[in-house]
Amino acid sequence: MGEILYLILIDPFVQMAELPDFFLQVLWEGFVSGILYALIALGFVLIFKASGVFNFAQGIMVVFAALSLVGLYEAGVPAFLALALCVLIMLGLALGVERLVLRPLVNQPDIILFMATIGLTYFLIGLGEFIFGGEPKVMITEELLLPTGSYAWEVMGGLVIFQQIDIAAAVIAVVLMTALGLFFQNTRIGRALRAVADDHQAALSVGISLNQIWAIVWFAAGIVALATGIMWGARSDVSFALQIVALKALPVLVLGGLTSVPGAIVGGLIIGVGEKIGEIYWGSMIGGGIEGWLAYFIALAFLLVRPQGLFGERIIERV
C-alpha cells in the first residue's frame, strides 16, 4: 500500500524535480493544446450567449472549414484566395443556419434547438464526405506562410523544443480571442449581443434584431472554427477525427462556464495542461491513454464543487 501511495503522490513530483527541462516541455505542449481548446470553446460560448443554443455542430464546423480550405486549394485556387472563400463559406453557413434553423424554431424549447444542431452536425458530415471524401488531407501550412521549423531553448541543463507552428497557433489564438473580446465588449453589436444574452424579450423591445445578432455570432463562431481547423490541421492531418478533438471543449465549458469568454480561456488552459501532465506522469500507472478521458474526469469532479463553472453565473430559481 505504501509503495502505491508513493508512486501516485510522490514519484511524479520527484520526476518533475529531477528533469525540470522535460517538465517545461510538457507544460508548453499542454499550454498550446489548452489555447486551442479554449479557441474551440469560444465558438460554443458566443452562440450560447446570444441564443441560448448549445451548438453541438461546432466540432464539425472546425472540420468542414479546414476541409473546404484544403479542398479549394487542391482544386487550383491560390491559398489566400481559398482562405478568403472559406470566410465567405462560413458566412453563408451562418446565414443559412439563421434562416433555415433558428428562425423557424424561435421560442421552441432548448432541447429542440439542441437537437437541430445535432441534425446540422450530421448534415455537414454527409456534405463534407460527399464533396471532399473521407480520406485525411494535409493542411496547406507552408502555402499559408505558417512556420514549420523549431527553436531549441537551453534551460536547466537540458533543452526545451518549441515548434514554430505551435508558437504561431498560440499567437493566432490569443490575437483572435482578444479581438473578438474587444469587438463584443466595445462595439454597438457587442452591446446588442450582451442585451440579447441578458433578456431576449427586452432586447426585442428596444429594437434589437435577434436574427441579425444570431447571424453575426454564428459567423464569428465560423471564423473561430476556421482558425481552429487550420491550427489543428497544421499539427496533424485534416480529417473528420478532428471533431473528436473539438469535443474537448465540453469539459472546458464545464470549468469556465457556458457564458464566459475568460472562462473559456482559463478552462482551456486547465484542461490542456492538466491532461498533458496526467498522461506523462500518471498515465503509465493505469496503462496510458488517459489523455483521451482525463479532461472529462476533471470536469466531472469540478461539477461536484462548482456546477456553474469558474466564471459562470449562479442562477437561483425560487419555486
Automatic annotation (TrEMBL):
This is Branched-chain amino acid ABC transporter permease. GO terms for cellular component: plasma membrane. The keyword Heme does not apply. CDD domains: TM_PBP1_LivH_like. GO terms for molecular function: transmembrane transporter activity. GO terms for biological process: amino acid transport. It comes from the Bacteria. Keywords: Amino-acid transport, Cell membrane, Membrane, Transmembrane, Transmembrane helix, Transport. It is found in: Cell membrane.
